[in-house]
Design a protein that fits this description.
2 copies of one chain form a homodimer. By secondary structure, chain A is an alpha/beta fold. The first copy, chain A, has one domain: HUPs (Rossmann fold, 3-Layer(aba) Sandwich), CATH 3.40.50. Chain A is 40% helix and 11% strand. Chain A has 8 helices and 5 strands, in the order βαβαβαααβαβαα. The first copy, chain A, has a 5-stranded parallel beta sheet, with helices on both faces. In chain A, helix 1 links the parallel strand 1 and strand 2. In chain A, helix 1 crosses helix 7. Chain A is globular. The interface between A and B is large, with 46 and 46 residues.
C-alpha cells in the first residue's frame, strides 16, 4: 500500500516517463506538466495526459508559463532563433551564446518548474518531487545538474513552512540515455506514448538535439524506438 | 552615469517603492510585477505602473501566475479562506495552518518571483535583482528571510549560464517598518502612489495585517500615511 504522495514533473518525454515509472513503484502519484510557449507544447500535453491515463493518476496539474515566451532568449520559445540540428549544435551554441550552453536552453527554466511543484506539494501534502533531469548524457543545461537540485533543496527547506518536508528526487541524474531506455523497458514504462522532439508535432524530426539524444539512447540499448519519425 | 542594470520586484506596496528608490541611486532600473490571483491585483498593478512612470522606467514586465490561484492554500488567493484582521492573526494562523505562519502565506511565492526575475535578468543582462523583503518587522513568511535569499543566490549561481552573474539584493531585510518609511522620505520615494492593503481596491481597509504593519510603521516614524483609508 503506497501512502506517501509524490509529484512527478512530466514533460511527456522519455526521461519523465521513466522517472514516473520509478516513482510509481513507491508512491502515489500526482503529475505536473508545464507549458512555457515551446513549439511542441500541444504534442507534449497530449503525451502528458496519455501517460497520466496509463498510470491512472487523478491529481493532475497543467500550467502555462506564457511569460517564458515573452522573456525569450531560447530557440525553444523564440521563433527568431532556429532549433539547431544536432550536428550543428556546438557551432550554433558558440555563435549565439556561451560555448557550452545550447541555444535551446530556456533561461533558468527548471527553477520555475520546481517552484510550481513545491507550491503544489506544500498544498496537497506531497513529500517528494521527482524530476527526470539527466546530467552527463544530456544537452549541458546548467539547471539539469545535480548541484542545482542540491541547491534548490536548500531553498525549499528554508522557504516553506517549518513543518513542511519536501525533497527533490532525481533518479536519472547520473544515467546514460541507453540506461534510461533499458530501465524504462524493465519497468514496462509506456515509451510509445512519449514525445521528445523539439521541432515537430506529428512525426519526430529525428534531427534536433533532443531526437538525436533519444535515438542514440535507443540505439545503444539495442532497442527500437516505438514512436514515428519522418 | 548609471550603466549597470538592476531588476526591481515591484508589488506596488511601500516596501517595494522604497527598495526601488534605493536601487535608483546606483542602477538603471527594470521593473517586474507579478500578479498571482490575489484579491487586490488590479490596484497593485496600477501602483506598479505609476511607480514605473515616476522613475521613468522603460523596461517593464508584468506577469500573471494564474496557477498560484489554482494551487490555492492562501487567504490572498483563495476566496474560501478569509483575510484575517490583524488582531485575530495569531488565532487564525493556529487554526488553519502552522502556529507561526499566517494564512496569507502564499506557498513558496517568492521563489516564483525570483525565478521570473532571474530568467529575465539573464536575457536582458541585469546584474542585480532587488526585492523589498523584510524579515524581522513583518508577517513571518518563511520566504521573506535572509537565509532564503542566500540559498536562492546559490541556485542562481549553479542554475544559469557560466558567464551569468546575478545577485539578489535585499536592502530592507533587517529594517523596521518605521525605518523603511523614514528611508523612503529621505529618498523622496513616492509613497503616495503605493498600495499595501490585502483586502480592498479603493480605500485601504486599515485592518488587515498588511495595513496594520504599514500604519504601525508610519506611526512609529511620526509621519502621516498619504494614502486614503476607510
Amino acid at each position: 500500500m503506497k501512502t506517501d504522495l509524490a509529484i512527478v514533473l512530466v514533460s511527456g518525454g522519455m526521461d519523465s516517463c521513466v522517472c514516473a515509472a520509478i516513482a510509481d513503484s513507491s508512491y502515489q502519484l500526482a503529475f505536473l506538466h508545464v507549458n512555457y510557449g515551446q513549439r511542441t507544447e500541444a504534442r507534449e500535453l497530449l503525451a502528458f495526459n496519455q501517460l497520466a491515463d496509463h498510470y491512472q493518476v487523478k491529481k493532475r496539474l497543467s500550467v502555462s508559463l506564457e511569460y517564458l515566451k515573452v522573456i525569450g532568449g531560447s530557440a525553444l520559445t523564440d521563433s527568431n532563433i532556429a532549433v539547431p540540428e544536432a550536428d550543428f549544435l556546438s557551432m550554433q551554441a558558440s555563435k549565439f551564446q556561451s560555448p557550452s550552453i545550447p541555444v535551446t536552453y530556456v533561461p533558468f527554466r527548471n527553477a520555475h518548474l520546481l517552484s510550481i511543484a513545491t507550491s503544489w506539494a506544500e498544498v496537497i501534502g506531497a513529500r517528494k518531487i521527482f524530476i527526470g533531469a539527466v546530467e552527463e548524457d544530456s544537452s549541458g543545461y546548467p539547471d539539469c545538474r545535480e548541484i542545482f537540485y542540491e541547491a534548490f533543496n536548500r531553498v525549499i527547506e528554508v522557504g516553506t513552512k517549518p513543518e513542511t518536508r519536501i525533497d527533490i528526487v532525481t533518479p536519472l541524474i547520473h544515467m546514460k540515455k541507453s540506461e534510461i531506455v533499458k530501465r524504462g523497458i524493465q519497468l514496462s514504462a509506456p515509451l510509445n506514448l512519449t514525445w521528445s522532439c523539439y521541432q515537430n508535432n506529428e512525426k519526430a524530426c529525428g534531427r534536433c538535439e533532443s531526437c538525436a539524444l533519444r535515438l542514440k539512447g535507443f540505439r545503444e540499448a539495442g532497442i527500437n524506438d516505438p514512436i514515428p519519425y519522418e
